[in-house]
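Case study 2.
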Amino acid sequence: MSNNNRILTTILALVLIIPAVTGQAQFATQIAASGGDSLFLKSDGSLWAMGYNSEGEFGTGGFYGPLFPGQIATNNLIAAMVVGSRGYVLMINTNGSLWGMGENGAGELGLGASQFLRAPTLVVPFGVTALAAGYDHSLFLKGDGSLWAMGNNSAGQLGDGTYSSQVLPEMIQSNSVVAVSAGPAKALAAGHSLFLKNDGSLWGMGANANGELGDGTYNATNRPELLVTNNVAAICAGASNSFFIKVDGSLWGMGDNSSGQLGDGTTNRTNRPEMILPGGVTAVAAGDYFTLFAKADGSLWGMGNNTFGQLGDGTTNQSHHPKMLVPAGVRVIAAGDSHTLFIKSDHSLWGMGHSSYGELGDGALNVYTNQPELILAGTPAPTLGIGTYGNQPAVYYPAQANGSYVLQMCTNLATGNWITITNATPIIGFTVSNAPGNAFFRLQ
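Prediction:
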């Protein structure tokens, strides 16, 4: 397999997309955490939130957020992706349209410099595939690989060669971009941006006061700068640091380390990428002075600030080395200012840390938990069934008895070769038998 194919395969492996199953309870598929807000998508495309809502970012028309998970009124939109930052929310509809709500003082919603848009408002009508939200600047990708940006540009974080804020989307790169991340900088610090190209190269622009661009300097730049030449598979911009995962699963970081959030055993910042772990990492998320990462075995790890129990290890002790937080089953992670969210393999949603505004969704205000707490139940473990597909005996996981399914993949157990099936026609009711299965079918 070529390097480019490996890179794209790794990127796709980090994205969790679970289609809705008609007639079943809906579960969490994607999460976003910021400041005092928590957001998640359910498998039916509905958008849910809990927490602050200080700028009307939940799109409910008011400024008070729910203390328990509440559905956001999205004008019948079916969300495919959501991101949130200080006081605003952006989401992609399944048709590729981009919508925003909340704070817009710096133009971060791309709708002109107005404030408090308290209902979902169309930003881009089609073609959007990915999003990133910084403190008050935003990035998005289109299907042609072009990179677009809007909002605050005081440190050059939009990468357009100026330091002038932009209240409407402007194109920064015309093609080849496959991933974006925007640093959620604090009010007294400027932000930075990262993007990944399809050749595995990592690029960055904006603030660099702590070496977060990893270019060997502490100088900001208002033009995209090549930071790593190849083999990068995933990226994450923190408040004053940056992280990336290479195709070999190694985790790297640079920038601020004042709470040990780089996990190197020190509190020394670095302006060059340093390896944190040599392999096995599948996802990384950066909070306020703490870092989370998930490994291929489903374990969740963390390091850095733990004042409010955001590491979920049962203590409030800072850690300067990676520490295992959850031993298995973690699939998706998100880090806010002082709280953590994750989804497990059974699709259950969990949280820990500070719930200053109800962001853990447990009804409490201004409290914290230093252990993982269940927010939303998942789905029961599937039961293996024996049946037939056509004339071939099959082992399958039934979604519901005698239901309709779309066949996604199958494998011949003798060879172990997976084959993607192009089949949009539902399979109606398997015939159950005791025949030995020689194929595995993955059903939607």
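Residues 385-443 form one domain.
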